[in-house]
Design a protein that fits this description.
This protein is α/β, with parallel strands linked by helices and 239 residues long. Helices cover 46% and strands 15% of the residues. It has a single domain, classed as NAD(P)-binding Rossmann-like Domain (Rossmann fold, 3-Layer(aba) Sandwich). It is globular, with a radius of gyration of 17 Å.
Length: 239
């Protein structure tokens, strides 16, 4: 009997990362990483309720040593990492050249871009062996320039398109596939980072995290000869 595939999700404590983990849970083993252990335990309970196995591995996705250690823990428990969903993200209310903090710019780039490269690098030997998929939760702002998204956020998310393309170009021979997933406005805690936090009326017409979770599941369930290079999912109201 074939063992269930082992999926590693970063940013799994809330929002789109949690939704992706739960949507993918049936028939999978799901390792959950993020900075808040209590929130990861909540996600783990949802994963188990959905029919999956769960392993909680708290960490800061910007910490390469912690990522390597977590990859080792997954391998010890389940043999290897078969697939990745990378959903950790950060933005700041101070988004313009006129008011941004370079310390915050660095933190946004480290979280949105460098952390993705670190996680892929840590898991790549396993992904090669598994013919694994990498789903990078990027942003609508990476697909189409969005002035309000901010300097650091737009730059870091746009760079993820090149990261995914390079992975596809260089690792296709090993069956590794990467999807640059670009959600539009989603009603999550992440909205608290906006300069003006949207109210109930604006949130009501946004995507829900589960909408993104279903998209992630669609990509992960694709047969091994199918690659979803880029997927944009947006609410009808997206400007």
């Amino acid at each position: 009997m074939t063992a269930p595939r082992a999926l590693w999700v970063t940013g799994a404590g809330s929002g789109m990362g949690r939704a992706a983990a739960v949507a993918a849970a049936p028939g999978r083993r799901v390792a959950l990483s993020g900075r808040r252990p209590d929130r990861l335990q909540e996600t783990a309970a949802l994963v188990r309720r959905a029919g999956g196995e769960a392993l909680v591995l708290p960490l800061d996705a910007r910490d390469g040593d912690a990522l390597a250690e977590a990859r080792g823990a997954i391998a010890a428990a389940w043999g290897r990492v078969d697939d990745l969903v990378l959903s950790a993200g950060l933005n700041t209310p101070r988004r313009a050249w006129a008011d941004q903090s370079m310390r915050e710019v660095q933190a946004v780039v480290d979280t949105n871009l460098t952390a993705v490269a670190l996680a892929v690098d840590a898991a790549l030997p396993d992904l090669r062996a598994a013919g694994g998929q990498v789903v990078v939760v990027s942003s609508y702002a990476a697909w189409r320039f969005s002035p309000g998204a901010g300097v650091a956020y737009s730059a870091s998310k746009t760079a993820l398109r090149a990261l995914c393309a390079s992975l596809n170009a260089q690792e296709a021979a090993h069956g590794v596939r990467a999807c640059h997933l670009c959600p539009g406005d989603v009603d999550t805690e992440f909205l608290a980072f906006r300069p003006q936090v949207p109210g109930d009326a604006a949130r009501a017409v946004m995507l829900r995290p589960d909408d993104v979770g279903r998209a992630v599941r669609f990509v992960l369930d694709s047969p091994p000869w199918v690659r979803v290079d880029e997927l944009v999912i947006s609410p009808v109201s997206q400007a």
